[in-house]
Amino acid sequence: MLKFLLKIMFFCCVSFQFSFAVSVNDGFEEYNKGNVFQALNIFEKACDGGAYSGCYNAGLIYYKGNRVERDYEKAANYFIKACDEGHGEACYNIAYMFENGLGVRLDPSKSVSLYDRSCQKGVSAACYNLSIMYEKEDGVEKDSFKAVDYLTQACNLDHAKACYNLAIKFKNEEGVEKNPLKAANLYQKSCDLNYANACYNLGVMYYEGLFLRKDNSKASELFNKACNMDFDLACKAYDNLNK
């Protein structure tokens, strides 16, 4: 009999939390209609009921200050609640707030641990930010190897600028062994992710023909792609190549 009652209690608990999870969707509907205050009220109630995506979305509304008064402190509190329950984007946001002293005491060291949690949850921007912090000795001791490791994680998660920065390291032998062909592959991935600088740099490699077979047609194609993304240097290179 006791086991039966416990099963009922567990089912009720799950159903209770599920109902709050459903209410988060109601919050989105209100937000999309422009009813921000109603959406915020729904998100806050969902958060109190254990639906931590509600905490995250309430935090976003307070952070952005769109049609409600911006309140970084409230945003931080909601992001912390969501992060504590494993919400990767919330961990990223509160890490950023600790890094910049928004609504919380400035604490780069705290932001490092939170960015790491977010990175391990698959948030590429968190991995990328950590690479910069280890590169610039911001809240941590300078560590080129860790910077490369986090850049690699970010690139593997399709962060375009991380792939670009990693390519530069392999091309210039910064914290890694020089490997121009690996740099070219990374430039290609970054370019495919529409990062103009990467398209331009790869175009230069094809134009110079030092590490790749010289291919003016390929260089022209890459310069043109970067130019179409408003990269002026690429536009000039494209014009010069096609005179």
Arithmetic mean of pLDDT: 90
Q: State the shape.
A: elongated
Low-pLDDT segments = 1-20
* Fraction of helical residues: over 70%
Largest sheet: none
What descriptors fit this protein?
243 residues; mainly alpha; 0% strand; disordered N terminus
Descriptive report:
- 75% of the residues lie in helices and 0% in strands.
- The relative contact order is 0.05.
- Residues 1-20 have low confidence and may be disordered.
- It is built from 13 helices and no strands.
- It is mostly helical and 243 residues long.
- Helix 12 (216-227) runs antiparallel to helix 13 (232-241).
Brief rundown of the structure:
The protein is mainly α. 75% of the residues lie in helices and 0% in strands.
What is the strand and helix layout of this fold?
Blueprint lengths: L1 H31 L3 H13 L3 H13 L7 H13 L3 H13 L7 H13 L3 H13 L7 H13 L3 H13 L7 H13 L3 H13 L7 H12 L4 H10 L2
Helix pairs in contact: 1-2, 2-3, 3-4, 4-5, 5-6, 6-7, 7-8, 8-9, 9-10, 10-11, 11-12, 12-13
